[in-house]
Amino acid sequence: MNDLEIRPASADDLPEIVAMLADDPLGARRESPHDLTPYTAAFELLTRDPQQRLAVAVRENRVVGTLQLTFVPGLSRRGATRAIIEGVRVHADERGSGLGTVLIEWAVEEARRQECLLVQLTSDVSRTDAHRFYERLGFEPSHIGFKLQL
Amino acid sequence: MNDLEIRPASADDLPEIVAMLADDPLGARRESPHDLTPYTAAFELLTRDPQQRLAVAVRENRVVGTLQLTFVPGLSRRGATRAIIEGVRVHADERGSGLGTVLIEWAVEEARRQECLLVQLTSDVSRTDAHRFYERLGFEPSHIGFKLQL
After folding, report:
1. ipTM here
2. Which long-range contacts (CB under 8 A, 24 or more apart) does A129-132 make?
3. Does a structural domain hold residue B52?
4. Which CDD domains does the record cross-reference, listed alphabetically (chains A, B) (predicted)?
């Protein structure tokens, strides 16, 4: 893990982040890496929202990983704030390097700093390798994740 | 559904909301309805966060339902904003009345107004009645929901 830095994403990182979102069995059908316009608009929204952390992992000036962390206050569980992880990606060149673990551990540490009581995420039922990965990191598959496309 | 109103929660609604959170097989172990201090602090956080909607359903001046809706911008899916539903509760007196459907339909309509492309939620694997309910409303159980307690 030498020379690896995890830092907030900047607008300059967008092409590399979007390329990683698209280089994925599910992402390939959903993303448009050759038209960054919608991503630039969404990046602006993320930047203005103090509850958002869009992080990148950088090694030797290359973006090799990303995730998004959102802090959600709430009444349940005695007013617990929870952290939600979305959009986890590790560059194809780095898979199996332990970078996924470093990214998730960074997110969990950030969540602790924000005094969250819970970190949660959903993973498509087809991503069985990811499920084993999250269970190894101590996450419990205690819920069903429902989605409704609008 | 006569005389039913869905409106933003106010601080005065907190005792009734917390009583509903606690009147639940899982909530009974997690909530402290006789000490509102942590809920009042969390309510302040919700009020200050423009991405949050804490709603109550009110009938004849009684709070009979609640849910929390959070808008989460993001890069995935071409910069889609998603809406996350949490803390859905219907008062014991109102179960089977269709109020749950009204609440979720209100949340979906709010999500459309905010131009969200997706509405999502997680439900504990033990809540099998809730799963059938969400599937009837068009939600797909496409994901596994992982949680890590901090």
Report:
1. 0.94
2. A131/B144, A131/B146
3. yes
4. NAT_SF
